[in-house]
Amino acid sequence: MALLEWSEELSVNVREIDEQHRELLRMLNTLHQASLRQEADHVLRGLLGELMDYASYHFSTEERYMFLYNYSGFLHHVAEHEEFVHQVGQFQGDFDSGADGVPLEVMRFLSSWLLDHILKTDKSFGPHFNAPGLA
Fold it and tell me: Is residue 6 part of a domain?
């Protein structure tokens, strides 16, 4: 059972970005499934690095379009991306130092952040990108 399922409600109507959001949800659901199997610590070790790399790739895609299409919310959006990277980096440090409960904290953070960011912040740029023909 997935922690978060993709739905059209999450679509920003930009194919490339929607595909990347699906991948981020897949990573979260991989951690959730590992947690259910009591393997979260093992899976999290590799997943945090993968998540950092993929998030950087994804954020650069969004930021490239925001710059290209002169999106007015650019600076606010970039600040949210930077906060995400900072938080995941903290989780990585906590995990590496042996802190307890990190997988659960990561799942809570990712599920909350992804839903909030996609539904509130990312949804606002979809129509702006669609107007000149990006789909």
Answer: no
